[in-house]
Design brief:
Elements (H helix, E strand, L loop, with lengths): L1 E3 L5 H13 L3 E5 L5 H6 L3 E4 L5 H8 L4 E4 L7 H15 L3 E4 L10 E2 L2 E2 L4 H14 L6 H7 L10
Parallel strand pairs: 1-2, 1-4, 2-3, 4-5
Antiparallel strand pairs: 6-7
Helix pairs in contact: 3-4, 4-5
Length: 155
């Protein structure tokens, strides 16, 4: 089972649609019950959760072995993502995919707030490595490794 965070946004909603089409067991973490209907129409599970409330993350993560972590930019993003990673560890999640943005470092700014300064750096990526036993990889690395699965030719 894959838990998808950010499931109601542009990227996440497309991901849950593709997972549903493929028949892949998935659960969408939603912040508000009124966001559930489109996901349930796809035949996927939903779970109410809040990155600031770890107990809701534990319940959402129960039975999941994969996590797609996509979080909104926020001054508290590093702490929020750490809450998600900690819940994933407690649930025994074995594989984490972290969606990030170009330029996600301590110097990247959004409306004056540091974007992912600690979260994308040593904090969350280090926790992903501890959780999975592998260093974090970019999507480009993932796609290159799985080119054939995506219908391309081997490199």
């Amino acid at each position: 089972m894959i838990l998808v965070t950010g499931a109601t946004g542009h990227v996440g909603s497309e991901l849950v649609r593709l997972l549903a089409e493929a028949g892949t067991p998935a659960r969408a973490l939603i912040h508000s019950p009124d966001k559930a209907a489109p996901i349930k129409r796809l035949g996927l599970e939903t779970a109410l959760g809040d990155f600031e409330q770890p107990d809701t993350l534990d319940a959402a993560m129960a039975g999941c072995d994969h996590l797609f972590l996509l979080s909104p930019p926020s001054p508290r993003q590093p702490e929020q993502e750490q809450n998600v990673i900690d819940a994933a560890k407690r649930a025994g999640v074995a594989h984490v995919v972290k969606q990030s943005v170009p330029g996600a470092d301590a110097d990247a700014l959004i409306e004056g707030n540091t974007l992912l300064a600690a979260g994308h750096g040593a904090g969350v990526t280090g926790e992903v490595a501890k959780l999975t036993g592998r260093p974090p990889r970019t999507f480009e690395q993932f796609a290159a490794d799985h080119r054939i699965a995506f219908g391309g030719q081997p490199s």
